[in-house]
Design a protein that fits this description.
- There is one protein chain.
- The protein has helices spanning 27-42, 49-61; strands at residues 2-6, 12-17, 73-76, 82-85, 102-107, 113-119, 123-129, 132-138, 144-150.
- It is α+β, with helices and mostly antiparallel strands.
- It starts with a strand and ends in a 5-residue tail after the last strand.
- β5 and β6 (113-119) form a beta hairpin.
- α1 (27-42) runs antiparallel to α2.
- It is built from two helices and nine strands.
- A four-stranded antiparallel sheet has the order 3-4-5-6, with no helix packed on it.
Length: 155
């Protein structure tokens, strides 16, 4: 993948690139996304069983891309480092629907790659600040907890 940065005048200022492997969207990912969507809707009293049934039908007939997007999310921390998250389904404040960890590539202000950071399954990186990575985790009972991981730097 590649991220291009442009100045206000439209001039290309920087290109950040990282190799990646495309992940195919199979029936397992489609089912996980459909269940995640229905679980979120089903937990709200606003949606009747009839509405959920119609949503399920629409989800099952929805065409999906052949592969996941290479980039799931972007964050900039308080030290102006760019965090580029790998493929994910879900919302920024909910854990990834895709099984397995999400790899975040970290770059300095000049576009130099610094490190890759893996966020474990059922956790979501929501912010990086004050020398910590702030992560939301959800347990089997859907109880959310915010965790702070100290960021170790080489210097």
């Amino acid at each position: 993948w590649e991220i291009q940065t442009f100045g206000m005048d439209g001039t290309l200022r920087r290109i950040v690139r990282r190799p990646h492997t495309m992940r195919l969207v199979g029936d397992d990912l489609k089912s996980a996304y459909e269940e995640w969507t229905l679980d979120r809707m089903g937990s709200s009293p606003e949606f009747s069983p009839e509405v959920l049934a119609r949503v399920r039908e629409r989800l099952e007939s929805t065409p999906y891309a052949d592969t996941l997007a290479a980039i799931g999310r972007l964050l900039v921390d308080d030290e102006r480092r760019l965090w580029v998250g790998g493929p994910s389904f879900g919302t920024p404040n909910s854990p990834n629907v895709i099984p397995g960890p999400v790899t975040w590539s970290v770059f300095d202000m000049d576009g130099r790659w610094l490190s890759d950071v893996e966020i474990p399954e059922r956790r979501a990186l929501v912010e990086v600040s004050r020398g910590r990575a702030w992560v939301i985790t959800i347990d089997a009972l859907d109880v959310k907890e915010i965790l702070a991981y100290e960021i170790e730097t080489g210097g």
